[in-house]
Structure formats: C-alpha cells, structure tokens
Amino acid sequence: MQPMDDTLVLNLDTANPEWQRVSVESSPPGRWGHTLSCLNGSWLVIFGGCGRQGLIDDVFVLDLYAKQPTWKEVSGGAPPLPRSWHSSCTIDGSKLVVSDKPTWKEIPTSWAPPSRLGHSLSVYGRTKFLMFGGLAKSRNLRLRSGEAYTIDLEDEEPQWRQLDCSAFTCVGSQSAVLPPPRLDHVAVSMPCGRIIIFGGSITGLHSPSQLFLLDPSEEKPSWRALNVPGQPPTFAWGHSTCVVGGTRVLVSGGHTGEEWILNELHELCLASRQDSDS
C-alpha cells in the first residue's frame, strides 16, 4: 500500500458536493492507519499511523480557514508510543491540542481492558468515553472483541469498567441481537449521547452492514438493532465516518475481502430535512 500525503475536503452545503484537493504549503509524511480529529470547529489534528519508515508518533495541525492552510507539527512532553490503527477523539472539541505548548499526559488507572487494536473510542456526556470491539489480546491469542468499556475523565481517579450490555427485545420481536465481535468498524457519537456501531471485520454469517445503537448512560444499557431503509454502504472495514450537523452520518472508503479499496461515500440521515432545518 502506498502511503498518501494529500488533503481533500468535501463541502456538503453545495448543490453538487465534490471532493476538492486543498493546496497546502507542506504536508505531513504520507501514512495510513492514523487518526484525524476535529478541533475547535476548523482545525484538523493528525496523530500517528504507519509510513514508509514504519510506525509514527508525530502530531500535525491544520487550520482549514487559514488564508494559506499549512500543516504544522507540534510537540510537547513524552508522546505515546508510535502506533497505527488506534483510536482518538476530542473532549469539548478542544482537549486534544489546545495550549501554546501542548503536552501529552498518560491517564493512570488501576486496571485496564486487554490491549487491542482496530477498536473504536467514542465520547459522550462531555468527559465519558466508550471503547468497543477491536482485536483484543487473550492470553496467547488475539481475538475479535464484542465487549464495551467506559471511563469518565471527570472522576478524581478515572477507572475503566466493563458494561454488562444486554440485547433489547421489542414487543413482537422473535429474538434479541447483540453486535457480533468485530474490529476496524466505525462508531458514531450522537448529540443525545447514544452511539451507533456500523461495519467492521466480522466472522461467520453475520451482516456487517447492520446498524446497532447503544445508550451507555442508561442504568442497564441495551443494544438495539436499527433497521433503516435505503441502500447501505458495501460492507467494509477500515473505513472512516463523521457526523455533520448532529443528524447526518457520512461513511467513506474502506476495503473488503474481494475489492481492496472502496471510494464510496454514503449518508445516513437520522432526522428528516424538515426537522434538521427547524
């Protein structure tokens, strides 16, 4: 796979959205398996990934609204170990890189879930995180995980805890369904605090195009399978997603066992146009 270093944007406010290449004065070294986070509404933050020389632990920031957008490398403190296929997210839109001298800080916990990759990390309730799935270490094996863990950084001593999630059974439903174990899926955090899981690398006859919803703030969290109309994206893993306007979910790219790389772009509207405009 060729590491890429290009920057492209898509404006959904136009009548006919088209991908446009952003002309930047300098670009970070090409990479894949990195994370791209939004900061303060207009800044993009890249961390980690895998490039020509192997794993990376650098951080670059880009202000899309600048007259001449330029990727700038930032440093501070001892960064995490070089890595790829990790997860990242922001708190209040400003906690990934916010000061003039950004500094990495490890969050100590008395216990942590088994080490893993290809998982998702979602923020809800301002300071709470939900970690789901991934390829987790189990003794001498690495297995797909269907477990969910939460942590609240507002606690005096933040601690991981595993959620005992059940399957929600509607009236008249034949059976309840839990999301199958997976990795390289996408997770979407909604403004209401609920989280949607889609896609990923799954074994067996399960459909990776099935949507699942979880409200981790419930007293007894339950997974719900969502049946939505329309043509879903090609089942894939390693794709990316984002939320626009709080109600529109975009899914882009990914790869399958048959076709190596996909360039599809799909949109899931969680509210009618009239509701979102009002």
Summarize this structure briefly.
With 278 residues, the protein is mainly β. Helix content is 2%, strand content 34%.
Notes on the protein architecture:
The protein is built from 1 helix and 21 strands. With 278 residues, it is mainly beta. The longest helix has 5 residues.
Keywords:
278 residues; 2% helix; single chain; mainly beta; 5-stranded mixed β-sheet
Mean pLDDT: 80
How would a crystallographer describe the biggest sheet? 5 strands, mixed
Instruction: Give the terminus-to-terminus CA distance.
Output: 45 Å
Which structural class do you get from the secondary structure elements? mainly beta
Low-confidence parts lasting 5 or more residues at pLDDT below 50?
A: 94-100, 171-175
Radius of gyration in whole Å, from Cα? 19 Å
The 3D shape can be described as globular
Strand elements, count: 21
Q: Residue share in helices? A: under 10%
The share of residues in extended strands comes to: 25-35%
Q: What is the strand arrangement across the widest sheet?
A: 14-18-17-16-15
Q: What is the helix tally?
A: 1
Order of helices and strands: EEEEEEEEEEEEEEEEEEEEEH
SSE blueprint and pairings:
Layout: E1 8-10, E2 19-21, E3 35-39, E4 43-51, E5 54-63, E6 72-74, E7 116-117, E8 120-124, E9 128-132, E10 135-138, E11 141-144, E12 148-152, E13 161-162, E14 166-167, E15 186-189, E16 195-198, E17 211-214, E18 222-226, E19 240-244, E20 248-252, E21 265-269, H1 273-277
Parallel strand pairs: 14-18
Antiparallel strand pairs: 1-2, 3-4, 4-5, 5-6, 7-10, 8-9, 9-12, 10-11, 12-13, 15-16, 16-17, 17-18, 19-20, 20-21
